[in-house]
Amino acid sequence: METYHGYIESVHDALLIFEACRLGYLSRVQRRLADKERRNIRSGSVFIWEEGESGIRRWTDGYIWSPSRVFGSFLTYRELKTRHKGKIPSPTLSNSDSDSDDRARTNQHDDAIKENGLVKQSMSVTTTTGRKLHLISYYNKDHVASGLLKVPSFDSSLAHIKIPKGFYPDIAPDLFQCAQRFFNHAGKHKPSRPPMIKLAPLVFNNSAQTPPLALPLQDIRLDRLPCSEDHRQLRVLANTFSL
């Protein structure tokens, strides 16, 4: 029932899955999940559905989630232990009271977050043909940090997928072009994860009495470089890697 299994790290990842479904390489969800299918949701589960063909307007999975928070182009939710039964005082006209209530809600949900639980993220787009598509994905933070979940942008089985410019108008053109330029180039090398640059420590030893100054090692992901002059540097580095 899953559309895909992996980690949706970026808007480009989401668009790849949307486009793979449109072209028939992956399958969209056609109906609501049955109870057994809900129980099979796991870290890495990704589901795509279209409102018209599935009749699904609101996704239900049987989990209890925190209120949504905006994370880039996604809404994210944290899995909670149990549904909180207590009541939060209604907000009043006093700003200080409202602020206190907001903090109470935040603290309440933070306390109820399930240890090692799932994170859910959602995204919706409308195509130029008027079809409204939705993405729901689930992941465990430890699985992402350890690299257990593949990322669509670096999945060789999706390397042939090209996202048509302008077909998903909800996506800002500058964001789309930046991601497309990088991943079109990086796709030639097909790394399992974005390559890392290791910055060696710089040592300055001006005299025998002055101790050397060493800067800490830092990993910089190439896909986090800004989209301007750094693209020129990115191309130089990528050519170096291919030698």
Automatic annotation (TrEMBL):
<dbReference type="Pfam" id="PF09729">
    <property type="entry name" value="Gti1_Pac2"/>
</dbReference>
<dbReference type="InterPro" id="IPR018608">
    <property type="entry name" value="Gti1/Pac2"/>
</dbReference>
<dbReference type="GO" id="GO:0003677">
    <property type="term" value="F:DNA binding"/>
</dbReference>
<feature type="compositionally biased region" description="Basic and acidic residues">
    <location>
        <begin position="101"/>
        <end position="114"/>
    </location>
</feature>
<feature type="region of interest" description="Disordered">
    <location>
        <begin position="85"/>
        <end position="118"/>
    </location>
</feature>
<protein>
    <recommendedName>
        <fullName>Gti1/Pac2 family-domain-containing protein</fullName>
    </recommendedName>
</protein>
